[in-house]
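Notebook entry, structure prediction.
Reason for the run: the old model in the group folder had no record of what sequence produced it. Starting over properly, with the input documented here first.
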Amino acid sequence: MVLGASGLQTFFKVTLPNIKWGIIYGVILCNARAMGEFGAVSVVSGHIRGMTNTVPLQVEILYNEYNYTAAFAVASLLAFLALVTLAVKTIAEWNMQRQLNDN
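New structure, fully documented this time:
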């Protein structure tokens, strides 16, 4: 105990504010990487249908089955999510820069 503060209080009042932007940026980048993962799942995991599937692999499956409408719809959803991720990243960077300029 440091001056009466518990471990959780120290974490939430000292540590977390200092690492907040790193955590936010890491989550955004992990999200972007997970949405676009194609090669590792297709090659390393064996591409087991129904078990090791990602959105890009689903687009490929639909396209190979000549289901172009569904493939386009899923690819459009993936593109929309990519744009949302980019917007969140831009807003986070803008807020971080504003906070640094205020201090």
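Summary: The two ends are 29 Å apart (CA to CA).
The old model has been moved to the deprecated folder.
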